[in-house]
Amino acid sequence: MVSKTDDIPASVPNCNPVDIADEAGDGAQDSKETSKTRLKDSCGCGHGADTAMVNGDGAHEHTEGAESKQGGNSETDGGEETNEQEVIVIQDTGFTVKIQAPGTEPFDLQVSPQEMVQEIHQVLMDREDTCHRTCFSLQLDGNVLDNFAELKSIEGLQDGSLLKVVEEPYTVREARIHVRHIRDLLKSLDPSDAYNGVDCNSLSFLSIFTDGDLGDSGKRKKKGNELEQIDCTPPEHILPGSKDRPLVPLQPHNKDWKPMQCLKVLTMSGWNPPPGNRKMHGDLMYLSTTYTFNPKPSNPSFLSHSLVELLSQISPAFKKNFTALQKKRVQRHPFERIATPFQVYSWTAPQVDHAMDCVRAEDAYTSRLGYEEHIPGQTRDWNEELQTTRELPRKNLPERLLRERAIFKVHSDFAAAATRGAMAVIDGNVMAINPGEETRMQMFIWNNIFFSLGFDVRDHYRELGGDAAAHAAPTNDLNGVRAYGAVDVEGLYTLGTVVVDYRGYRVTAQSIIPGILEREQEQSVIYGSIDFGKTVQRHNVLNEKNESVELCSSVECKGIIGNDGRHYILDLLRTFPPDLNFLPVEGEELPPESQRQGFPRQHRHRLACLRQELIEAFVEHRYLLFMKMAALQLMQQKANRDAKNDVPAITETAETPSGSNADTTQTTASDSPSATEVSTDSTSQTENNSKPATNGLLEPTVTQNGECKSPLEGKELEESIPGLAQAKELAETLVAEDGSCIGVRFPDDSADDVQKQKQLLKDASFFLVSCQIPSLVKDCLDHSALPMDGATLTESLHQRGINVRYLGTVLEFVDKTPAKAQLEHFYRIGISELITRCAKHIFKTYLQGVELSALSAAVSHFLNCFLSSFPDSVAHLPPDELVSRRKSRKRRNRVPGGGDNTAWASLTPNELWKNIASEAKSYYHFTIECESVDQVVEKYGLQKTTLLREISVKTGIQILIKEYNFDSRHKPAFTEEDILNIFPVVKHVNPKASDAFHFFQSGQAKVQQGFLKEGCELINEALNLFNNVYGAMHVEICACLRLLARLNYIMGDHPEALSNQQKAVLMSERVLGIEHPNTIQEYMHLSLYCFANGQLSTALKLLYRARYLMLLVSGENHPEMALLDSNIGLVLHGVMEYDLSLRFLENALTINTKFHGSRSLKVALSHHLVARVYESKAEFRSALQHEKEGYTIYKNQMGEAHEKTKESSEYLKYLTQQAVALQRTMNEIYKNGSNASITPLKFTAPSMASVLEQLNIINGIIFIPLSQKDLENLKAEVQRRQQLQELGKSEEPTEDRPLELEDKIPID
């Protein structure tokens, strides 16, 4: 799935809940068993939400955290006074109970009071010795415990109580659950679910490189100090300069995956269901192995409550293999097997033999009907679940955690169900609700979800760009839903919305408003317009303060009261203002600077909107201008501060004193939007400047954002201020003014206002081109933004509010930059992204005409035309009878779309590349002068494997993992057997864990101020809360773990750093993908901690893996490669592989020189590292040469007196002495032959400590020995600087430096 990270504030690139059960089901480490609860959300019946709060053991001194947060972070924490009491609620300590299961010894289990009984069930179903039981109850003194009761509410349950596991009689449902669970146990090591992208399984390969778990033992498998035994030779294709980019190593062979066969076949019998006479004897269902029906028990008869025990009695081989399998299963790290919250798809997979699987077969059948049998109540009422979770109370921390957890759980279930439904719709397995209409106009309902196709059906979008607009509208609508969801206004509801792209179609899935299908739409719309503005409903609404506000939004936006009495707002496709750079309007001129750059440009549709991040940056930019002007007038205006009734509109020149912020806020609703924009942000800034917040208006929720620099946070701030949500609406839906909205006219008396708003729109669009694009390029030049592939490039554009349609403009800007050579990597990734996006647009329409039977042939043909050097690629049409038979039937039941079914076969490489070039011109306004893939590769330095990865990920193609010969001119690279699958690409809302996020941010702030211990505690706390909301796996937890590992490392706790970073790597592989740029970074961090822990060979393996992935994803020519190669070179130097080490270090030197310029300090450091290796080889002349280069750079940049310069000069003296000594010895040998008296030379292997010191330096980790007094001064200085920064802060994106301490290298 495409991880839509635009809505993850950049400072948390990958967060994820902790230790889910560090050892869930291991039983051995019971102290950790508290965390097991995370595995539990799988009950699937919607109860998932009620599970535990934070578990006892992890909650660190929370109260202390709360105080320091109040103190240190200059946060005016309105609603946080309650924090300490809340925190205490959460810290109910855990206790231990004894569990007695039939046939096993009693064992202890650590539990926490807020857990539910059901979670103990889950743990037992995961433990090695009890995993085969599913149908049992837990009894305390003979009383059966209620599954959904919290442990603290059970009378008589206390520390040391004995719980008995009692087998219960089966029902058909329980029997099915049992078979399903046994099947899951048998398949637990089988990766096929991950390859097929089902049940939220995904791949992870870390354990192959670390030989299993790095665990607590640290130095595993080390005999003495035998360094020589390490095999350091990297595979050929990883060496610097290698042109080979093999695909197969992407998925190294995992020996655990050889399936241990326990059973040949386990299936539901064709004799089901039991006939009446057998039902009366208690037969529930049959599992079959035979062809004759004989319901009598066999002789001798076997009877068992558990299928596993039964099979173990019958088959010794089963017993042996099953035991071995379970041993292996529980040895795997829990993070390798827990489900991810959203499905991640793999774009490569090996050829897997298809095996019989009754559960999968049954699932496929029932999901076609749109309900899941093992969930009570059959279909879920998604709308009710989504809205009810929003209505949960949120007064204190435990309530908020419960609420956010419930919202997140329902969202991830809804996204999964919507994706399944959308695929079923496109695959033709769902009946339309309007079957009589043409296919592209059909709508569908499946599993209580409404599906519509991204076509312009009733000419709704005719004026806006037809199908192109209909394709863009759902994502705009989703952004609107995301924005309103984040504002989280009580009493205002949005629809659950998921946008799925699958097989060339765009499907929008929405939850259904109760009653909307029964009545005519006209009657239910109480706000907005359904006939394009001929009639518009506007009305006064009351906000939280019961003040009357006229709510205004764009003309398509509708307000509907459902049968459930809730107020729904929908069709939010114009929540954000239009982008005038791509919307030519009669009679409106853009600034001359924009016109020079060729704006406004024609775009395919008229729905081009500015991004939320841009609005925020623009408001902040305006606010800074305003501050500068207002500062002058502040003094004389302080006296008459209550200029409340005539606040002037603030446009270019501002006359309002910033003192009147509070008042502006109240008047904004009726005021002009420009005033709104400014005042809005002034409120957020008052907090940031740690002045007291003058606004009595702020709700408690608002100010926790204190440091709100992240795009999302700022928004919540502005919008959770009563009245401002609507005012912001005004500001953001200036839509109508530019005439882009059809049929909307304005009364004459507002002409002045409208003019101001138009100006504001133009200014915002101009700001994007004149400020945001240059600032992105500047960030890339100083390497604070380091995109590695298409996804990370898109992310860095989005963080700055730049839409991808500006990609051509950005590339042109780079092309004209004097420092273009240092932006080569950025330009290359940009070109590759532009080309693959054009190819994706073409592929979309190409696929729509393809019959299901010809899908693999069509996809392989397209890839051949796109990537293969073979000039006349010919498509293989499927056998005729399939196509012709379908054709002769009526056209009605064909898949949506239409067109000639075999037109795709006539595509040629030449034609495709012509289309790509013209698409680049028309969509991105960028010229690609290339007629074939080879010319493109040649001209822009691209790699075909990288292009293959980008197009596969963007379109959901899954290909066979093997070596493809792209460059053969005699045969095409792909055959239809190479295309294994096509997956959906899914966009959805990512609900946030707000409290956890604030803890995380406060922790980051503390760390940046140098309070490592407090920072560490806050981050641990954040980790607990994240776990609580998201369960164990989530990108945000990943960031949390990474930062924690880094802090552990800096504070000297290497084993802990290793354990946290291992989790971060596993989580990144599982949640983002095995070759995602983030995963590559996590591998690098882990290798550093391995080295520090003495695991040298593991450190090397991890670095080689990272280098391989990086070559595949972006090639060798990338600034980050220099860091990676320096790391590899240093480790190799440490294990005395000098020649190899030099290859990597010299490559790093070349890359650093290229991207940082020959006078950069990075280059000086590279020279020094190379010199050290030459010294170890006793090649003093080369060593001197490199060290001299380094010395010159230090001297010129830092001056003679700087310690770096002095160190370098000392080292030069030492090298000169060594060189002289060596020369003397040589002369002696020449003169006296064999009887020369030789003074032994000192050849020292580098000490591990010195290598580690260099590793820390290049990875941006610096340990500074300081006295207590120094520390105090440093902290004071840091705080002074932060205050200065707050005042002068311009659009600093959060991404860039949240995680560094003294890092000068923007790694995180």
UniProtKB/TrEMBL annotation:
The keyword Metal-binding does not apply. GO terms for biological process: intracellular distribution of mitochondria; mitochondrion organization. This is Clustered mitochondria protein homolog. It is found in: Cytoplasm; Cytoplasmic granule. Belongs to the CLU family. Keywords: Cytoplasm, RNA-binding. The keyword Transcription does not apply. Residues 1-82, 651-709, 1284-1308 are annotated as: Disordered. Residues 360-583 form the Clu domain. GO terms for cellular component: cytoplasm. Residues 29-41, 58-67, 1288-1308 have a biased composition (Basic and acidic residues). GO terms for molecular function: mRNA binding.
